[in-house]
Amino acid sequence: MAGKEAVVFILDTFPSMNSPYPKDSESTRLSQAKRAVINAIADQSWRSKTHECGCIVLKTGLTHHHMAVMDGIDDENALGYYFRKVARGKKVHVDLDDEVHFPNLIEFDLNRITPQTLRAISHVCSTSDESNADVMQGDLCDGLIVAADALYQRTNGKKFKRKIVLFTDAEHKVSVDGSQLQAVLDGLNKMECEVIVVGIGFDDEKDFSSIAKSSNDAGIKQEDDDDDLDQPDKITSNDAPTAEESDSNIKEEGDVDNEDMEDLKMESDSKARVKRENQMLLMSIAKETGGCVLATNGADIEDTLQRKMPSKAGRKNAQRYETDFHIAPNLTVAVRLAKMTEQCNLPSLKKGAVQFDPESGDALRDGAGELMTHDTGTLTRHFEAEQLEAGIENEVPLDMRVDAYRYGCDLIPVGKMDLAGINAAFAGDTNRSIEVIGYLGRDDVVDSGLLMGPAYCVVGGKESNKSRSAVAALAQAMDETGKVGFCRLVKTKNGGAPIIGALFPMTSDGGRHLQFLQLPFADDVQHFQNRDMDPFTGSEEQVQTCEDLIDSLMLPDGDFERVSNPTFKAYRQMIVDFAMNAVPKKEELREEGLPEENILLAAQPKPLCEFDATKILAKKASGKISAFLEEFPLQETKEDEKKKKYWGDDV
């Protein structure tokens, strides 16, 4: 399966997208959709630098895409400037030129992800209003055609996972050419590209990814379970009223109030009919391509999209590698060993020197508008201390330097070959291996409280049925007898210090496997003697206050395994914010460091903790926390009483 992904997002900007979403809120349908697009693109960037993303904006007064390039638009910066001018009140002139292919569409090219794309998408706004929205072309079918052609031009013959994600409320009129749409869907099926529709305010949703499509009937005219699902080629236009609606326009003379009410009812019915027919059209498109339709229904749009495109940035896949499994003397099979848990650390910063124009003093930028920098390195030099004090800089040559460990107040020199000899003494063999020394009672090992992490998963060999059968049979036997294996594990190639641990039998949906957990050596266990604590002599009210506080802070039932690390979340949010806002600026680069107020301003919108459970519990327990502070008021300690005390000291 291909590792690279190519995703084209289609963003609807019809005036109805400016409606508050959810109701009575400051955010709009368009603002939430833009946030979902930006975060999805940023997540693709975190996952791999080879992923490619593009975006097509519907219902714009400007036409700029690979099938109809407009002069004067060079890059995403110019497109972002166009949307900023519209947001400031610039009037949009709708281009009705019949020679333009698919007018009123703006495309951000499908390519490697750059900060300019995020900045430009953040400025996207609705360029039409009620007066010209109906005559403006560039509906969702036109955007789908342009997106499909962009994917074909960019990824044809290459190994990509392709997706088209459409954000729309489906409240504008759509003109469909059945034969043209059929050809586009056939092409998407050949490219194995699924269409994901995020329907804002939709009533129904369905996932067609698990439905097998017939290779002989890949057209759009396939039977559906719903009898009232119209075929796309039958939906020619949404602007023609039916005969019943035409008859309903005939009103009695002088009946003004009834006429106004009937007009409002007809307008409301017409909008509902348009949205209903568009939903059926999008449902049939998603079914044909094996995609899905996601209904928001007041939920956060970004959360709705993550049900189909979950955020995977910062996660590490388990790296399985082959190793030898010594079950008993003269009994060895090849298995795969994978670490199940691993600590994640923030990536280190990359230092670079900014290039300046020697004449103007401005920072140089490349054709994409990014700063031109040079890589920097760190050079450490060592000098003889006695001669350096005398003013003589005599550098110590490399062959005269040595590494040392601090021991007491002295330094003990140790060579690299000495450390390598320690590992070589425990090598045993030149390969990674796991060896069963004996068996212990499961309850004895669990009750000892000596189990350590991380955990390793042991499964059968990739191409060996005998190995998989041996691992499964051993796991079943250990489970039935209540035993665990006492093992010796060598993790590194060419030997290395071994570790000991327990091998537990595990059962999952995929079958039986083994799980290795490390046990400490005798020198790793330290025993601490705790002093006796004074008994609590508080009142019943204080005890009850503590119990109420504990009850209010109990975690609710839920899936806490998918809670993201707040540090990584804040880190990614900070980088995306800097990429979109293009800091530091030119005038700030001339100074030795960023001004303090700029640092504080950049840090404020990126809290280190965005743990939703923490916020919910803090709000829930606010009253109990106040009651606890009243029962146990804080007292300021006098200066003469502030002295260091250590655990175990007598009070």
UniProtKB/TrEMBL annotation:
GO biological process, one term: DNA recombination
Domain annotation VWFA: ranges: 6-239
Residue ranges, compositional bias (Basic and acidic residues): 263-272
InterPro entries recorded: DNA_bd_Ku70/Ku80, Ku_N, SPOC-like_C_dom_sf, VWF_A, vWFA_dom_sf
Documented EC number(s): 3.6.4.-
GO cellular component terms attached to this protein's record: Ku70:Ku80 complex
Main location per the UniProt record: nucleus
Start and end residues of each stretch annotated as Disordered: 213-272
Pfam families, per database record: Ku (PF02735), Ku_N (PF03731)
GO MF annotations in UniProt: ATP binding; double-stranded DNA binding; helicase activity; hydrolase activity; telomeric DNA binding
Subcellular location: Nucleus
Keywords: ATP-binding, DNA damage, DNA recombination, DNA repair, DNA-binding, Helicase, Hydrolase, Nucleotide-binding, Nucleus
The name this protein goes by in its record: X-ray repair cross-complementing protein 5
Organism of origin: Skeletonema marinoi
